[in-house]
What does this fold into?
Amino acid sequence: MSASQFAETHEVFNQVPSLDGANLYRLDTPLQAWVKHYGGSFAEAQLQAYGALAGGPLMAAGFLANENKPVFKTHDRYGHRVDLVEFHPAYHELMSTAIAHGIPSSPWQDPREGAHVARAAMNYLHNQAEAGNACPLTMTFASVASLRLQPDLAEVWLPKVLSREYDPRNVPISEKTGATIGMAMTEKQGGTDVRANTTRATPVGVGGPGQAYELVGHKWFCSAPMCDAFLTLANTDKGLSCFLLPRHRPDGSRNQFYVQRLKNKLGNWANASSEVEYRGALAWMVGEEGRGVATIIEMVALTRFDCMIGSSSLMRQALTQATHHCAHRKVGGRVLAEQPLMQNVLADLALESEAALALTLRLGRALDRQHDEQEDKFMRLMTAVGKYWICKRAPTMIAEASECLGGAGYVEETIMPRLYREAPVNSIWEGSGNVQCLDVLRALSKEPGVLEALFHELGDGSGDRYLQAHIQQLKNDFADIADIQYRARQLTEDVAVAMQAKLLLEAGNSTVSDAFIASRIAGRGRVYGTLPRGTDVEALLARSTPLV
Ligand SMILES: Cc1cc2nc3c(=O)[nH]c(=O)nc-3n(C[C@H](O)[C@H](O)[C@H](O)COP(=O)(O)OP(=O)(O)OC[C@H]3O[C@@H](n4cnc5c(N)ncnc54)[C@H](O)[C@@H]3O)c2cc1C
It folds into this structure.
């Protein structure tokens, strides 16, 4: 035999076609349906265009930005302290594309009906390509709500925050064409318990809202430390207050803001998260003195909403990969997507993904209609419920989706390991799981009309007897306040699935709503792939499998 015959050891076959370059919007039937349902159709062309970017160049940039983690430089080559974090060009490409397409700004610039829904859908596409850089995008988007509470600061900062230009230069705000904003609350002794913050703020002059202070203290977590300014918390004599702390002082000199080191994280690799110290850093008070939590909570509510978008998006990308793989991969001579047990798993994952998306975009609609009292109360409660439930579901759902790819799903050449590493953080930051459940109880007990708004929204379960019984049980459970903190996770989960069932029923696709109710309300499968007999798995898969 010749040498060339030995060189060809085998033929490669039964591998799936690449999804590289797929349009993530065009292949996502549920996303298209829910965007339309909640009034985001005006952005159809934009979503089509962004879907192509997210599945193409941004997806490629996402891999590069994770393979090349940010690097922290304390000093320049001449020995000057600089505190710079250097990112791979792919990170900057992701940031500039998202900003140019209005992901941190569009609903503020053009607050029309459906604006938050459309922006959420854009962000959903972007997060599938790369979720780490979504952190500064989200914080910049969310900072607008808190900055607006201090009009003199807003006048200077908002034109740059809402700019469509990404300007990563480390220069003062006066020289910038666009700005990004971070948030620093967590200290070593307490993240949940921000009231334990020890950072002190001393007025430079008269003090009070909009006035300059010097801050001395630290923050244990400060993500995206290359942001142009940070909303942060510090104590004055009147208590915890909110401040805007820029990287530069008005005279152009560097502020006394020192990055100590970057965190070595489980995932979220493209994003830098740091520890910082303030050594007399200049900052301006935002909102009322002593009301720092109330001021920054405006921002936190929006970042929690974005955690829902982020986790829903990671789940969708995992589902896309799993259904695509199984539509092509044969085992025992038969395509996996046609084998009954795999159909059960994939259809169950598809239900989870769609229910997460439905709840997320329903919150987008509430944001679009915040002037309506019912919507405002709905938003107050359901942000905590949705943040808890969707972020909690993501890691297990993504692990199961990865397993659908077999060994390939465990290998870094696929996106699956990154999705899995990324998933837990949304449940931790912006208030961890238990904190969200306790916030649900707080909203229900302290804010008049929230419980009524919940049951008004759930109504009579749209005539479904299982959902009706579930809602009645919820009413009984909330009426019984014994051990209510102990039961808070169960209650929050029960609200979440009731709301998801109601939204799916309302949207009118009975294949999806029947399967969701049968599996999540009437029955309770403990792992994915336990849908009851009679579920129309083929229809569910047809809805969720990418058509390429
Ligand atoms: C990658 C990453 C980036 C981050 N970036 C930022 C950032 O940019 N800015 C920032 O300010 N923070 C940031 N954080 C910090 C994050 O917000 C905090 O870690 C989080 O709020 C939890 O605070 P903690 O770590 O102090 O935990 P703790 O407050 O000690 O909480 C520990 C656990 O106890 C639970 N718990 C708390 N209270 C109760 C209670 N009453 N009953 C029952 N359980 C309770 C919590 O849910 C949590 O599970 C980041 C974190 C990570 C992982």
